[in-house]
Write a structure and sequence with these properties.
Structural class: mainly alpha
Oligomer: single chain
Strand content: under 5%
Largest sheet: 2 strands, antiparallel
Helix content: over 70%
Number of domains: 2
Shape: globular
Number of helices: 11
Number of strands: 2
């Protein structure tokens, strides 16, 4: 009986993973409005999963704080797509905080300060950080470089898991995630750096850069470290609020936040590393 359940879960995870990869390819390869639209939908879902987990919402329907957050996301994505000026994006983020504080003030005492802070935290955590997938795709040679986000997260996760299963002995975060090991974490970093280097060799002729393999190895390795922090951070939030998964949207995985937790952390660091190490621009 147990083996049948495990087999069903494994099958669901595999099918879901394949679907996610197909959607990623269909959105990232053309980029532009298609990628922005897909990320917008993912961001809204992830935002609502986070606000619910953090106790912003007390009922089943989004409240006024969450609706304000959704409005902010709806303004933010057109700004980064059409305007492409970071100062305007920052303006939207700051105005979003002011809007949430206005809801807090004019509906007082409906919301507690902790709920307002959680709502704003959720806005930055999921939608804004995830938008760096789009911003990386918009960079020069972004059609190639954007894949480093997923090499630093999903590929790293695969190497960490396999290494941990084979030689994992020392617990990385025993209270937070007992199954993760120091050896697995190191394996994830090495694996992501290696795949990044190989990817760099593959695309070196397209980018015309001799050191691209070394640069992408660094991006992969550093991104892997950040990716694992992101994974543990999402787990910590779930443990703080006594929930197993953020949602049930993705069979075998949970919610958007369960599947994209590491990507959310890896996207900004990949974007900034590429700019710093390669001088890339939009």
């Amino acid at each position: 009986m147990a083996s049948n359940i495990l087999g069903k879960i494994s099958k669901e995870r595999t099918i879901s993973a394949v679907v996610i990869v197909i959607v990623a390819l269909a959105a990232i390869l053309p980029g532009g409005i298609i990628l922005a639209a897909v990320l917008y939908v993912i961001s809204v879902i992830g935002y609502l999963e986070l606000t619910k987990a953090c106790g912003v919402r007390k009922g089943e329907k989004p409240d006024s704080l969450e609706i304000t957050g959704i409005a902010a996301i709806t303004c933010y994505y057109p700004v980064i797509y059409f305007v492409q000026d970071s100062s305007y994006a920052v303006m939207v983020i700051i105005l979003s905080m002011m809007a949430m504080m206005s809801v807090y003030v004019f509906t007082y005492p409906r919301f507690h300060a902790d709920q307002v802070m959680a709502a704003y935290f959720s806005l930055i955590y999921a939608p804004v950080m995830l938008s760096f997938v789009f911003l990386t795709r918009q960079l020069e040679n972004g059609i190639y470089l954007v894949w480093m986000i997923f090499i630093s997260s999903w590929i790293s996760d695969t190497f960490a898991y396999l290494t941990g299963v084979m030689i994992g002995r020392h617990k990385l975060a025993p209270v937070l995630s007992p199954k993760k090991s120091v050896e697995g974490a190191v394996g994830g970093v090495i694996g992501a750096a290696l795949v990044g280097a190989l990817f760099g060799v593959y695309i070196s002729s397209a980018l015309g850069m001799d050191q691209i393999a070394v640069i992408l190895a660094v991006v992969g390795g550093v991104g892997s470290v950040i990716s694992q922090v992101g994974d543990l951070a999402a787990s910590a939030i779930k443990r703080n609020h006594d929930i197993k998964d953020y949602g049930k949207l993705i069979p075998g995985h949970g919610g958007i936040m369960d599947r994209f937790d590491s990507v959310i952390f890896t996207a900004p660091i990949t974007y900034f590393l590429i700019i710093l190490l390669m001088g890339a621009h939009g």
